[in-house]
């Protein structure tokens, strides 16, 4: 008896913009992912003003899943997937985002994709907005700084809930909505919310305003989804990097608590339908006058999520410093390296125990079913001349995390719905735009410059994960 419940959702996760390609096919509009170039570890992706000639935009072709999904899904079925998490590219359904009528070719593509999944016994798990909002909403409306986006998003949600209600049961609204707590860098505000800042602009209140509109949009979407079909399960999606105090000095502990407040209040609003008092007090202290209406507050209480989906890759650590007497957390300056854990080649701290801690943290706070919808190891893989990839390091990473996940379920009693490792087939990295940062059980022949045959091959981890699923997590 492994402790994972019957029907545990073993599977894999991806996002439309990172694997589909076909960026101009079937009437698709330009998304924010289509104007981001390839970067590298320490080299940010460039956000260009529209699509410019001569630049490398890795998401335009990605791994061509748009044309190859039938074969790729067969490989997922071979591993025994019970579910497959992907997103619906908003720009396939509403190419510009502000149209009144959806694009039928885009809707048909996802009908075909979901039918194919279901034929193979794989349940689709769908994110509505995964770093791929229409670029037109950025240029015309300023992204989520504009309240009008609430209506556009809710319309999109209603269209897809209605269309796919009998094919898709599990949904999430905004992917990693809390990444934008890191608002000093350009990446998270742009990918989460389509925010481009003016030089010298006070970024923080703009981020809170955008997040507020998203949370209202999420709540209205949840409410609409329930009215369309009460059997839909609609969750939120949080990027969980638990923040530890570097030492047991009391102020380090307080600093870590404040940091957790600053990164995870989004979950409070999604789950409880209202803002935590610590954040309202913070707005007051900082003098942030946000547009939060009585109607918004009402909407938030009516659209609480059914479950918490979250990603887990790493933990963070922080410490108090003398120049920060109020112990305010700033994600670009407050993090320190944890001497007790190793790091990946991209500097991500590897901490399997942190997953058990995170599961317990969510469960203690919210008592809602949890779903680990991303976890994985971005690494450089070598394709041997015989076509194999010996990714033992990936197996080690995932096995260590699954062991901790099992302890959280069996020993700690956490209610866990499923586990979908990230990038179950190699795809374009969100953070860097690289192909070289690989997560998959399936190798895709393509490099950072876009060269390669796009051929797929099974890595060593492919057969390993197949056994994990077949044994319901017993054989690690
Ligand atoms: P990449 C930062 C921190 C944690 C998760 O990331 C993150 C990010 C953004 O880079 O993103 C999630 O590709 C995201 C996926 C993404 C995956 O983690 O930068 O939901 O779209 O690909 C891995 O290595």
From TrEMBL:
One Pfam family matching this protein: Glyco_hydro_1
Top-level division of the source organism's lineage: Bacteria
This protein's UniProt keywords: Glycosidase, Hydrolase
Keyword Hydrolase: yes
InterPro entries attached to this UniProt entry: GH, GH_1_N_CS, Glyco_hydro_1, Glyco_hydro_1_AS
Catalytic residues of the enzyme: 374 (nucleophile)
Entry's family note: Belongs to the glycosyl hydrolase 1 family.
Name of the protein in question: 6-phospho-beta-glucosidase
Species the sequence originates in: Pseudocitrobacter cyperus
């Amino acid at each position: 008896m492994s402790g994972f419940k019957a029907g545990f959702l073993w599977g894999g996760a991806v996002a439309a913009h990172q694997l589909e390609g076909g960026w101009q096919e079937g009437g698709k509009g330009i998304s924010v992912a289509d104007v981001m170039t390839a970067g590298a570890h320490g080299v940010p992706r460039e956000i260009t003003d529209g699509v410019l000639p001569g630049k490398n935009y890795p998401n335009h072709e990605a791994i061509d899943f748009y044309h190859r999904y039938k074969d790729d899904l067969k490989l997922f079925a071979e591993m025994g997937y019970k579910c497959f998490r992907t997103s619906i590219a908003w720009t396939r359904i509403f190419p510009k985002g502000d149209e009144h009528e959806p694009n039928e070719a885009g809707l048909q593509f996802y009908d075909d994709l979901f039918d194919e999944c279901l034929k193979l016994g794989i349940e689709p798990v769908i994110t509505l907005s995964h770093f791929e909002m229409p670029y037109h909403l950025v240029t015309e409306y300023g992204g989520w700084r504009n309240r009008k986006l609430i209506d556009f998003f809710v319309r999109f949600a209603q269209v897809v809930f209605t269309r796919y209600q009998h094919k898709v049961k599990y949904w999430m609204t905004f992917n990693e909505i809390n990444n934008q707590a890191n608002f000093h860098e350009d990446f998270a505000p742009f990918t989460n919310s389509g925010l481009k800042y003016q030089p010298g602009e006070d970024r923080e209140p703009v981020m809170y305003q955008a997040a507020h509109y998203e949370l209202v949009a999420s709540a209205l979407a949840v409410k609409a989804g329930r009215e369309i079909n009460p059997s839909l399960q609609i969750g939120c999606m949080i990027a969980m990097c638990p923040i530890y105090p570097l030492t047991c000095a009391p102020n380090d502990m307080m600093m870590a608590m404040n940091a957790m407040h600053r990164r995870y209040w989004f979950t409070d609003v999604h789950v409880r339908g209202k803002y935590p008092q610590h954040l309202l007090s913070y707005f007051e202290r900082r003098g942030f006058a946000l547009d939060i209406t009585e109607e918004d507050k009402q909407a938030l209480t009516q659209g609480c999520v059914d479950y918490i989906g979250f990603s887990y890759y790493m933990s963070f650590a922080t410490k108090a410093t003398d120049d920060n007497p109020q112990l305010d957390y700033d994600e670009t300056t407050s993090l320190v390296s944890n001497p007790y854990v190793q790091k990946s080649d991209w500097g991500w701290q590897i901490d399997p125990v942190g997953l058990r801690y995170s599961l317990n943290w969510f469960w203690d706070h919210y008592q809602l079913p949890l779903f680990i919808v991303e976890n994985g190891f971005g690494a450089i893989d070598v394709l041997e001349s015989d076509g194999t990839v010996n990714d033992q390091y990936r197996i080690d990473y995932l096995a260590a995390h699954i062991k901790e996940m099992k302890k959280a379920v069996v020993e700690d009693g956490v209610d866990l719905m499923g586990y979908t490792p990230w990038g179950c087939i190699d795809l374009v990295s969100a953070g860097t735009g690289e192909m070289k940062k690989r997560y998959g059980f399936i190798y895709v022949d393509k490099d950072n410059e876009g060269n390669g045959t796009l051929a797929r091959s099974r890595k060593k981890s492919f057969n390993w994960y197949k056994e994990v699923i077949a044994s319901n997590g017993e054989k690690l």
